[in-house]
Give the backbone structure.
Amino acid sequence: MSITLNIYYCGKDSSARAFAREMLDSGTVAAIRAENGNLRYEYFFPAEDPQTVLLIDSWCDQAALDKHHGSPIMDRIEEMREKYDIHMKVERYIPDEDRPSDGAFIR
């Protein structure tokens, strides 16, 4: 079963956005997207909270996510989190196909 995490990166001023920009510009995001088992790795900016960046991070299964967490890329991410003083909140989701569909409400 695939795993999707919503990771909210929060910082002061524009540090969360600067963190996301460095992740992209440094090639770290491209390297994560190329990892075996990564399904999605995308940043979004909440309209009502300029201090937060949302990362939608999806993996094919727990084993792929665990391998990612044990990879050298995580050291780079941790260094950048420290550099920008980023704090996180994480939500974990299961795919909709594993639950009754809300199809009647989706346009």
Observations:
- The mean pLDDT is 92.
- The longest strand covers residues 3-10.
- The first helix runs from residue 15 to 25.
